[in-house]
Fold this sequence. Notes:
The protein is mostly beta strands. It contains no helices and nine strands.
Amino acid sequence: MSGDQDPPARTVARFSDLPDPGACEFLAGPGDWPFRGVVLRLDDRLYAYANVCPHKQHPLNAAEDGFFLPGERLLRCASHQALFDPESGLCVAGPCAGQRLVALACGRDGDDVWVRCPDALAAPGTLRFR
């Protein structure tokens, strides 16, 4: 992300509602094209990413919170089956192997889970894939 100011922190989930391992999608910002993100809980730690696969810029999930395969600890892109390490965002298998999801700052305030994210994916400098 670029810019002189950090994007705002937004409450996106309740920690007690997130299974471990588990993930939930969130939308931030107004309008028809809000920012789509995903917050993950794994081994009682939180991770957050833009919900955009670096391969074709599709959302990772097809179903509302369908990010993990049952019994698996890797994130999956439902469109092209790319697999991502949830701790680093690194694609470990699939058409974008070696690229990373765009990480977002996240944390907890009591039971509230917050993420720093822009209002829209279309914001200049919002996403960078490596």
